[in-house]
Design goal:
Blueprint (H helix, E strand, L loop, with lengths): L1 H35 L36 E3 L12 H9 L1 H24 L6 H16 L7 E11 L2 E3 L17 E9 L2 E9 L6 H17 L6 H12 L3 E4 L2 E4 L1 E2 L5 E3 L10 E2 L15 E9 L6 E2 L5 E4 L11 H13 L5 E2 H6 L6 H10 L2 E4 L2 E2 L6 E10 L4 E3 L7
Antiparallel strand pairs: 1-18, 2-4, 3-16, 4-5, 6-7, 8-11, 9-10, 9-11, 11-17, 12-16, 13-14, 13-15, 17-18
Length: 414
């Protein structure tokens, strides 16, 4: 027992000597400063550089200990729905859904803080895996979910580049690097108890793309403004297209008309299901379906300097459980095991290959492909316009509350 004791005493002595050396160095530094200042007796204490605590390293409840999260932007309904703001029955119905609205607001506050973190941190030269995982890890920490189904990512972080408009997130081994000239769509979801916030923005590093971003942002805000209870989907689409296609992009001596991507839409959001049954078009014509009280919608618009139409192309990374399929017999045992893992871990929330890697799944591609072929899991490959085109996206989630329309994901950035 004496030998460890002697070692400990020696370590303490060494630390004491180091401390004395540090003190001596500090005294010497102060003395030199006094001489340089003409011998004036000024005692200067050396301040320690305290690192600021990053808000993405702590749970969101740290900032809201009472568990009540801030409302988004609230907008009164138009025309025949103006009565809703003060109607006592509608106010009662609104209060009955307070817990549900609060889950959306908590997810929205996480989204706002993480996208600010992303804008501050993401720089050219980062790999796309670094970009996506920095966002996803920040969401998981802030959302404070004990598991994937309680709170966290609502769907994989999309970081689609240039002519790719949506559904690209890097798989393991992807070496793609973010470049200064890239136009990147950052599309990620945050959920709390299945209430999903779907919001996206476009990142560029060169101001020459500003007009493209302005067009899509204006179009998204137009869609938000036009949306409301009893509003027809086709009317929203017509308004969005008119605004977006009034813009042009001048680039390297050429002028490009900005086109709405006609086969991409907004959509309603349901508990644990990012895409419901209703679509919000961004071009005129089509669906006469109306929005209804209590529904939640993702108002998203996509613009392009290309043909304004996307197709599936490239290696798939996004997947989701198909709950509409009945009981399908599976002959591959590894597929049965993987399906059980998917149901237990993600449920109906979309996932990507990196998420399977993260939970320790290995050599799962054969099983995953079998599940896709059987129809039990849906594939969502990247959606691309023609090569050389540039695409951009903006998106917000709105709540059609009984009393007001709430743009719950609205922030200072957009």
């Amino acid at each position: 027992m004496s030998e460890p004791k002697e070692q400990l005493e020696a370590q303490v002595k060494d630390l004491s000597l180091e401390s004395q050396a540090d003190d001596a160095a500090a005294i010497a530094e102060e003395a030199i400063e006094e001489v340089e200042d003409g011998g004036e007796a000024k005692k200067k204490k050396k301040k320690k550089n305290k690192k600021k605590k990053k808000t993405t390293n702590v749970g969101i409840s740290t900032f809201y200990p009472e568990g009540v999260y801030p409302e988004g932007e609230t907008v009164e309904y138009k025309d025949d729905n103006l009565f809703r703001t003060t109607d006592e029955e509608k106010r009662y119905l609104d209060r009955q859904s307070n817990e549900r609205w609060n889950d959306f607001r908590k997810a929205a506050e996480v989204h706002r803080r993480v996208r600010k973190y992303a804008r501050d941190r993401i720089q050219p030269g980062m790999t796309m895996i670094e970009v996506a995982e920095s966002i996803e890890n920040a969401v998981r920490t802030m959302a404070e979910g004990e598991n994937e189904l309680q709170a966290g990512m609502g769907f994989p972080c999309g970081v689609s580049l240039n002519h790719c408009a949506a559904h690209y997130t890097p798989n393991k081994g992807d070496t793609t690097v973010l470049n200064y000239d890239d136009v990147m769509k950052v599309d990620f979801g945050v959920h709390v108890n299945g209430s999903i916030i779907d919001s996206a923005f476009t990142m560029t590093f060169d101001s020459k793309y500003d007009q493209l971003l302005a067009a899509i942002k204006d179009a998204t805000n137009t869609g938000i403004r036009e949306a409301g209870i009893d509003v027809r989907m086709c009317d929203i689409g017509a308004a969005v297209q008119e605004v977006m296609e009034s813009y042009e992009l001048e680039l390297d001596g050429k002028t490009y008309p900005i086109k709405a991507i006609r086969n991409l839409n907004g959509h309603d959001i349901r508990p644990y299901k990012i895409h419901g049954t209703k679509s919000v078009p961004i071009v005129k014509g089509g669906d006469q379906t109306k929005m209804e009280e209590g529904e939640t919608f993702a108002i998203e618009t996509f613009g392009s300097t290309g043909r304004g139409y996307v197709v599936e192309e490239g290696e798939c990374s996004h997947y989701s459980r198909n709950t509409e399929m009945g009981n399908v017999p599976l002959r591959v045992s590894s597929a049965k095991t993987l399906l059980s893992t998917i149901d237990k871990t993600f449920g109906t929330l979309p996932f990507c290959r990196r998420y399977l890697d993260r939970i320790g799944e290995e050599k799962y591609l054969l099983a995953l492909n079998h599940l896709c072929k059987s129809g039990l899991v849906n594939e969502h490959p990247p959606l691309v316009d023609q090569k050389g085109a540039l695409t951009a996206q903006y998106e917000h989630t709105i709540l059609l509350r009984p009393t007001v329309k709430e743009v719950v994901s609205r922030g200072d950035d957009y």
